[in-house]
Amino acid sequence: MPAGSHPHDVAPAPDGAVWYTAQTAGALGRLDPVTGETRHIPLGTRSAPHGVIVGPDGAPWVTDSGLNAIVRVDPATDEVKQFPLPAGRNVNLNTATFDARGVLWFTGQGGVYGRLDPATEVVEVFDAPRGRGPYGIATTPDGDVYYASLAGSHIARIDVVTGAATPIDPPTPNQGARRVWADSQGRIWVSEWNSGQVAVYDPAANTWREWRLPGDGPQAYAVYVDEDDQVWQSDFGANALVRFDPASETFEVFTLPSSPASVRQILGRPGEVWGAESGTDKLVVIRTR
Fold first, then answer.
1. pLDDT(90) > 90
2. What Rg do the C-alpha atoms of the chain give, in angstroms?
3. Pairwise CA distance, residues 51 & 285, whole Å
4. Are 140 and 186 in contact (CB under 8 A)?
5. What is the pLDDT of residue 246?
């Protein structure tokens, strides 16, 4: 990517493009993986974008902590539309997900989570039940929404109707739950930054399991479950992407060619797993097909 981009999050789109947040450039980047060409779309003065996802409308949606707003970029015209948070709620915006009704939910490490209904353009903010820490967030196949609290070392389930959040504690204390993702069965996979583990919570059985990543000093940052229910993590300690097979309970390590890659987020589409190398101004893809 262009020097100084510091790509934080990445989102491959159905049309073949790949979006990424150029955090230090205050822009949203678009990569054409066929030609390798990139372009940046400025998001506004003081912009510091963190997360990006592709919404049901096919557009990239950004959580921008510098603007303290949710931002939508029109993929056809590059038009930027900001949805500011309520006055006085500067919350260090982090990550977003869409629920089954098309409502966008987001986290703020300052101790909040919230929602934006694109139909009404109304933004609501809720205080997290245990304060600081909400970080990663994801939606299950059934439409349930869960977030991870890094500072609070727990995950929480959000009632998408009332907005209430219920904390759920992993077995390991102070594990540093950083990001979450759901598999096809609705189980919640969690990257545990402090403990170097990947964990899974089964809501149906109300049970947990945890596995430590291989090697010395693993640091599990991002987590993503692909279309085959393979669980991918980024390991800062090994400078690698790591694939975990829940069926065999085995890990496979893919050491990254650039160091320190510092992959802070992973997303994919069928046959591809993408990571944002914030430490090297690169995006990385592993093609599994």
1. no
2. 17
3. 18
4. yes
5. 98
